[in-house]
Amino acid sequence: MRFIAQLRELSGGKPIGFKLCVGKRREFFAICKAMIETGITPDFIIVDGGEGGTRAAPLEFSNSIGTSLNEGLVVVDKFKRVARFQKAPVKSFLEVMAAVGITHPDQISPWHIQRRISSLEVKHYGEIYDFLK
Fold it and tell me: What are phi and psi of 57, to 5 degrees?
């Protein structure tokens, strides 16, 4: 990400991005994490497949390195959809926590979270899981 920032500065603010072929999902997520941690983001990311678009790549590369374009796009698309999906439940959870006077996650204790054990019995996590005490 520092290279992106340096390139952007040296180019006078021109749009800076990169092209990638998704190999392993964790590699793409590591790039996303680095963007969040540094606050440096590219202006664009091009997701390509491992098919070797010009067919000039050696056969071993085309067959063994990276995922197909369809699979690579699914990873990127799912990442966005999961983030959008999780936004509403997290917001609702924070509203419920605020309603009971909790202003920070450190304030949540095992007795704040309850679970139905049977049709007649409800216990808090401190009663269910000894290691949480």
Answer: -70, 150
